[in-house]
Specification:
With 368 residues, the protein is of the alpha+beta class. 49% of the residues lie in helices and 20% in strands. Strands 1, 2, 3, 4, 5, 6, 7, 8, 9 and 10 form a 10-stranded mixed beta sheet that branches. Strand 2 and strand 3 form a beta hairpin. The C terminus is likely disordered.
C-alpha cells in the first residue's frame, strides 16, 4: 500500500491534522443537511419537482413507440514520430417496434491516423472525430425509425457535444443532423450521466430562491444530490425537476452559453431537466432538442411523456439507466488495453522489413 510507503513522521502529522479536519467537516455536513432540507421545502412550494405519472393505457402506447440509441468511444495511442492512431467505436441500438429485450445492434470500428504535437491536441481531435461518427450513426438510426407518427433517439451525452467546440462547420452539420430527425418525427434526447457546472444553481439565483453566493452549495451536483434525495423520500417515487431552457441557467461568464448561441441562431432550442430515479441512484440530466416554440404547459407535457418512456418503459427494475443507453455504451467501448494491442499490431507490420526497428528504438528512448 502507498500509505505504508509514506514516511512515518509525515504520516503521524497528517493523521492528527485529519482528525481535526474531520471534526470540522462533520459540522459542515450537518449544516448542509439542514440547509438542503430548508431549500427543499422552498422548492417544493414552487412546484420545482415532478413525479413521473402515466396510466396503464399511456404506458402500453409508449411501449410500442420505435426507439434507438447511439453512443461512441475512443482511445488514442502511439505518438512516436508525431503520429497517433485513434481507435473509435460507434454503436447503434434499434428497436423498430418498441420495447424489446433483444434490439438490433450495429457496431462500427474506425482506425484513424492523426498527426499532432501532444496528447492534449490529439484528445480534442479524437473527440471531434468520434462525434462525427456519432452524427452519421444518428442519421442511420433515423432512416430506420423515421416516417411514423412518433419515435425517439437517445444520445449517450449532451445535445451540444463537445460543449465548448464552436467550429462553424461542425455546428452546422450537427444542427442539420438534429433537424433531419425532427423532419422525420423523431425526438432526440440527450442522456447526460455526468452533471457538471452550476446551471440549476444559476437559475435559482436568478429567481432569487437562493441569494448570491452560497457557501454550502458550490455546483449543481452538490445542490441536487441532497435536495432531490429529500424529494424522493417525500414522494416515494422517481422525481425530475421543472424543465428549463438552456439559456435560463447560463451566465455571461459561461463559455457554454456562447456555443449554445451558435446552435440557437440556427433554430435549435434545448430544454433540460435533472432526474433522480431512486434514493440511492445517481442524478442525470435529460436534454431535449426542439425546432419549434412550445408553451410552458406543452413543454411540461412533453417531458412527462419523455420521462415516462425512459423510466417506466425502458429502465429495468434495479437499474437507473435506460436499457438502450446501457447496451450502446457497452457495445461501443474501446478499452485501453485493446487499443494498445491493435496499435502493437499496426507497428509490428510497419516495422517488419529493413532496419526501421532501429530507428524506432532510438526514438522510443527519448520518450522514456
Amino acid at each position: 500500500m502507498e500509505f505504508n510507503k509514506t514516511e512515518p513522521e509525515l504520516l503521524t502529522d497528517l493523521v492528527f491534522k485529519a482528525m481535526r479536519a474531520g471534526e470540522g467537516e462533520m459540522e459542515r455536513l450537518k449544516q448542509i443537511s439542514k440547509k438542503s432540507y430548508e431549500l427543499f421545502g422552498s422548492l417544493e412550494s414552487r412546484d420545482i419537482f415532478y413525479q413521473i405519472i402515466s396510466d396503464g393505457e399511456v404506458l402500453e402506447k409508449l411501449k410500442k413507440i420505435p426507439l434507438g440509441a447511439v453512443d461512441g468511444s475512443f482511445q488514442s495511442v502511439g505518438g512516436l514520430g508525431g503520429r497517433w492512431y485513434v481507435m473509435i467505436g460507434i454503436a447503434q441500438v434499434i428497436a423498430e417496434r418498441g420495447f424489446t429485450l433483444n434490439p438490433v445492434i450495429n457496431v462500427d470500428g474506425i482506425i484513424e491516423p492523426l498527426n499532432a504535437v501532444d496528447e492534449g491536441v490529439i484528445y480534442e481531435l479524437s473527440e471531434v472525430l468520434m462525434m462525427l461518427g456519432e452524427m452519421l450513426a444518428i442519421r442511420k438510426v433515423a432512416n430506420r425509425l423515421g416516417g411514423g407518427e412518433e419515435s425517439y433517439i437517445l444520445i449517450d451525452g449532451p445535445i451540444i457535444d463537445p460543449p465548448l467546440y464552436a467550429n462553424e462547420k461542425y455546428v452546422e452539420d450537427r444542427v442539420n443532423t438534429l433537424r433531419f430527425c425532427y423532419t422525420q418525427n423523431i425526438h432526440v434526447i440527450g442522456f447526460v450521466k455526468r452533471v457538471r457546472g452550476s446551471h440549476f444553481l444559476n437559475y435559482l439565483r436568478r429567481k432569487q430562491i437562493i441569494e448570491g453566493k452560497n457557501e454550502y452549495f458550490i455546483n449543481d451536483l452538490d445542490l441536487l444530490s441532497s435536495v432531490m434525495f429529500n424529494a424522493i423520500k417525500n414522494r416515494a417515487s422517481p422525481v425530475y425537476t421543472y424543465p428549463l431552457n438552456y439559456e435560463e441557467g447560463c451566465t455571461n461568464e459561461d463559455k457554454t452559453a456562447l456555443t449554445y448561441k451558435m446552435y440557437k441562431d440556427r433554430g435549435l432550442n434545448i430544454y433540460y431537466t435533472y432526474y433522480k430515479p431512486s434514493a440511492r441512484g445517481r442524478i442525470f440530466r435529460i436534454e431535449y432538442a426542439l425546432f419549434e416554440n412550445l408553451s410552458e404547459q406543452e413543454i411540461k407535457e412533453r417531458f412527462n411523456r419523455i420521462m415516462s418512456l425512459l423510466n417506466q418503459v425502458w429502465t429495468p427494475l434495479g437499474m437507473d439507466q435506460p436499457l438502450p443507453i446501457i447496451i450502446a455504451h457497452n457495445k461501443c467501448n474501446v478499452r485501453r488495453g485493446a487499443a494498445e494491442t491493435i496499435y502493437y499490431e499496426i507497428m509490428t507490420r510497419a516495422l517488419s522489413e529493413g532496419n526501421l526497428h532501429l530507428w524506432l528504438e532510438s526514438l522510443t528512448e527519448s520518450y522514456i
